[in-house]
Amino acid sequence: MAKNKNMRPPMNVPKGTLGRVIKQLFKDYPARMTLVLVCLLVTAVASTLPAIFMGQTVTLVEKGLVEGIDTVYGGIVKIALSLLIVYVISLTCSVTYTRTMAIVTQGFLNKMRQRMFAGMQRLPIRYFDTHTHGDIMSYYTNDIDTLRQLISQSLPNMITALIVIVMVVAIMFYYSFWMTLVVFLGVVAMMLVTKFVGGNSAHFFVRQQQSMAKVEGFVEEIMNGQKVVQVFCHEEESKKDFDRLNEQLFKDAESANRFANILMPILGNIGNILYVAVAIVGGVLMVLKVPNLSLSGLPLTIAAVVPFINMTRQFTGNVSQISQQVNAVVMAQAGAARIFALMDEEPETDNGYVTLVNCREKNGQIVECTERTGMWAWKHPHQADGTVTYTRLAGDVVLDHVDFGYVPEKIVLHDVSLYAEPGQKVAFVGATGAGKTTITNLINRFYDIADGKIRYDGININKIKKADLRRSLGVILQDTNLFTGTVMENIRYGKLDATDEECIAAAKLANAHDFIRRLPDGYDTMLTANGANLSQGQRQLLSIARAAVADPPVMIMDEATSSIDTRTEALVQKGMDQLMKGRTVFVIAHRLSTVRNSDVIMVLEQGRIIERGNHEKLIAEKGKYYQLYTGAFELE
Prior knowledge:
Layout: H1 17-28, H2 30-67, H3 73-121, H4 125-130, H5 133-175, H6 177-224, H7 226-231, H8 235-288, H9 302-324, H10 326-343, E1 355-362, E2 365-368, E3 376-381, E4 388-392, E5 397-404, E6 413-420, E7 425-429, H11 436-443, E8 451-456, E9 459-460, H12 466-471, E10 473-476, E11 485-486, H13 487-492, H14 500-509, H15 513-517, E12 526-527, H16 536-550, E13 554-558, H17 566-580, E14 584-588, H18 592-595, E15 600-605, E16 608-613, H19 615-621, H20 624-631
Parallel strand pairs: 7-14, 7-15, 10-13, 13-14
Antiparallel strand pairs: 1-2, 1-3, 3-4, 5-6, 5-8, 8-9, 11-12, 15-16
């Protein structure tokens, strides 16, 4: 169970992912991010100034020991006051950028979630058929959280550290080229270690994000199917499957953190060795009176060596600070790559230009209007001559030599042709996998056909905007989906501007009114967890009522009554008959009570229509339908 699901090859993080995050950040918050950069610059510069003040103070103290402390007292006080002002400014900027980044971080994450969700709503059904829901949920939780760490901490720390490094290097060159060369040799060693250890850490952090998504996808799947797991006593197998995925997550996380945790101690010790080396080299150069090479042109004295040693500590500390953020940056890149992969998924294409509009008849002609009249028409602009024609929405559906495959190399529907005139009831029967539901998915344009044509009221459905096409179709599925909200809100989902009276009328039509009245709060009863507080039959009745309130000219019923007991079905059937009256209806059902009164029955086998006709005709032919009918009550 779920052993092969989500077992996609490891994802490589595209180059420029981090840059794309930063670019989007500045695009969303240009003023605030500019303020943050200014504050970070001031804070970083302020952190390097004490080393300069220290050198000046040492020089004054040396002078004071020779000429008397009173001669340099004013200078020392001036340096102390200047340092105090620097610290106050630094503190102000730190508070400002910290508060600003808190606003920016949460605002950016909010915008990213909105972009992901908006993009997800435009994805084709195919995407959700090939990705587990738990994996998709991981985008909104784990992957987004990696960006929070990046924006709120890692980026500001890295920017500050880089500015400090540049400033410190400039000051080092000012004091001494020789000692700066020693520091650079140490930096080379730190970079080599970071490249080796950090590179391995990055690889496993990417794998950790993917393994976590797999675990979440599996848990979500098992939660949804917990009843099935227990009915078939599959608990132990489920535990083994989970342990396998969880063990992989453990291995990836352990490897990532093992490399990450050894990086800082190694860099810290290299920094300590470098600190001692600079002190020794500086002392030796002073003792040997080696000519000093520097931008300042000053001799190498204790006033230069002491601040230089402190700058070495500051330099290595900031290099370590950048290295310390590598793990968070790598995780954020892995998370951002997954987020951008979702946002960059090709949206459902829609080249349609025929729209559905309200209309009325005037002098025997169809005229578009803004008010709701209960009458609809297809508005068809003709690009050739610039004219517009209106076709009354009637529900005439024709499939003309249609071929289709979910993947191009495997065709599942072969040369399917059928027509459904307005008001006709067309039933599809056949074994599971024969292609019954696939045909209804093509009418909805959840998938596009490989060959042939589908016409709706004489119009090729590829020319109709998908939203308008689907608005004209009512769908009742075998698997019901109810949303968190009241019963009334769930019924109104079929028509968002429906009045309470229209919703109640739809519930009565579906024979759901009686059981709704017996609920604790009637139509105001809250439903959660896909209507877990209702029976399966009651949930199906609500889905039928939801379709009824939409009042579409074409209805698609995919096993709509399969979850309703025989007694309830008899009640619902009356409402269904009223609902289907005057409409084109496509029915997929195994119960003969639903099939036998259809105007035409299509018998499918391996993606082909092998028989067609009404119940009496097909029985008389004694073909496949006759075998199904006489073999069992259920057509399966």
